[in-house]
Amino acid sequence: MFVQPCTSGLPRGRFAPSPSGDIHIGNALSALLSWLQIRRSGGSYILRMEDIDAARCRPEYARRIPGDLRWLGLDWDEGPDIGGPFGPYTQSERMELYEEALTRLSAGERLYPCFCSRHDLLQAAAAPHGLSAEGPVYPGTCRRLSAQERSLRAAVKSPSLRFAVTQGELTFADGIAGKQTVQRADGGDFVVRRADGIPSYQLAVVVDDALMGITEVLRGFDLLDSTPRQLMLFEALGWSPPRYSHSPLLIGPDGRRLAKRHGGITLAELRESGVKAERVAGWLAWVSGLLEEPEERTPRELIAFYDQSRIARQSITVTPGMLAWLTN
């Protein structure tokens, strides 16, 4: 019996980091803004570990992340370290739920096996208009296979599973980026389970958000292009989607995402160098547009300043001078 989605009626938000590294100030910005959004509305906040990509994720990072967030001044009502009614709160412990979702999609004839190799996909990506923001647009090769052809290929190769997208327009309102309209088929049919049996990020995040009753998703702008795919999965599974808001990314003067080459640092490094948590929180609120000037503030103090209409809609270029205030 498939677990039914949580419908508490109260706002529910989440921060769902991948434990592939320590929390960087760019991740911390998404965490702070999503926390402020929920605390301002009096809702519940959830911490979830998206560790489904075992090759990149490490247990030591999963253990350190809650401490880094607490140092910044954030708290949560449910999570892997404190439990809650809609756990587990770690993706690697939720595989059975993802399989149930795949079974439901398969019963609705929304999935098909794909036997294409990485080489096949790279060849397809070389064609004009062959790349989407999320990678190669799948040309639909295996969608057209007959049952006999699928059986023959399955005898020699384990397939991935793809979601068959439909034609038509998809429109949604983003709380920060504004109205978004895309063609459903623009991104092509996408993988929901890899050939090794691991569910995709797109499937797992939809199942988790639905069953945990998430009503508000505030995350980085780099995930805006994932939203149409997730909305299509919500629709196919018969679940109501959350409201999405995508916050600006922190980039360096060279236009690339902020990294160590720019002096971008983790919360752990800031703490170890003696920087106060209030300075980090106030700096993040300033660069995002919530404060007019950088000043030391606790996240609790920043709740009163939270106004989503003030959050920057464009990527934020972080100059050496801006970082100097943070680390001084």
Automatic annotation (TrEMBL):
Residue ranges of the motif 'HIGH' region: 17-27
UniProt short sequence motif 'KMSKS' region, positions renumbered to this chain: 257-261
Binding note for cofactor: Binds 1 zinc ion per subunit.
GO biological process assignments: glutamyl-tRNA aminoacylation; tRNA modification
InterPro entries attached to this UniProt entry: aa-tRNA-synth_I_CS, Glu-Q_tRNA(Asp)_Synthase, Glu/Gln-tRNA-synth, Glu/Gln-tRNA-synth_Ib_cat-dom, GluQ/Sye, Rossmann-like_a/b/a_fold
Gene Ontology molecular function: any one: glutamate-tRNA ligase activity
Binding site for L-glutamate: R14, F15, A16, P17, S18, E50, Y201, R219
EC identifiers of the protein: 6.1.1.-
Pfam family, one: tRNA-synt_1c
Top-level lineage group: Bacteria
Function per UniProt: Catalyzes the tRNA-independent activation of glutamate in presence of ATP and the subsequent transfer of glutamate onto a tRNA(Asp). Glutamate is transferred on the 2-amino-5-(4,5-dihydroxy-2-cyclopenten-1-yl) moiety of the queuosine in the wobble position of the QUC anticodon.
Family classification: Belongs to the class-I aminoacyl-tRNA synthetase family. GluQ subfamily.
Name of the protein: Glutamyl-Q tRNA(Asp) synthetase
Protein source organism: Paenibacillus spiritus
Top-level taxonomy: Bacteria, Bacillati, Bacillota, Bacilli, Bacillales
